[in-house]
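Researcher: Structure prediction, please.
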Amino acid sequence: MKFKRVLLKLSGESLMGEQKYGIDDKRLGEYAKQISEIVRRGVQVGIVIGGGNIFRGLSGAGRGFDRVKGDQMGMLATVINSLALASALDNEGVKARVLTAVRMEPIGEFYTRDKAIETLERGEVTIFSAGTGNPYFTTDTGSSLRGIEIKADVMLKGTRVDGIYTADPEKDPTATKFDEITYDEIYKRGLKVMDLTATTMCKENNLPIIVFDMDTVGNLMKVVSGENIGTLVHN
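Model: Predicted structure follows.
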């Protein structure tokens, strides 16, 4: 395996699968299977999962929710997704532990960096939920922060598209894909890979990102094996 410890960022939206909201059991099962395969090959896996399939703080603010309350609702949505993923991993015979950035025992254990690293070293999948525990920060920023704290070799951003393009490939048929790109180039081109706070944190702490299509079964194993799929972002 090319990477020993990874931070996998999953979007809440992709958990919807074919549905309009909520969690699609089939997609959840596919994710759990892919993750369990790399764990069995000795990769230490930390996961941050978004909450957009249940509630998005930012769009909630647009619908008249107070931004802080909306973001707190979004944090709780990530906890629901994290519990679902932990349960699906248990079904695959892989131990998973949910750590929360906001105290809510007995639902999950309160996050500390030492506890997270200990859990990873035991070979358990460690799921970081409730974002950073603060409003105004996205789960992208949460995953950058956790990736840096646990000293991950790479952040793997699993999305619906197979990498970073010059424009949105779903809207612009002429968009071309980058095999690799620097953080500075992302700023210059104004590409929406992650929010700026998250991108800056990865740049300043030298955490490379690989953006890849997680919805194609088998891709996660290819990425951690070092196959050249997706787009690598680096300094």
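Model: DSSP finds eight helices and nine strands in the chain.
Researcher: Thanks, that helps.
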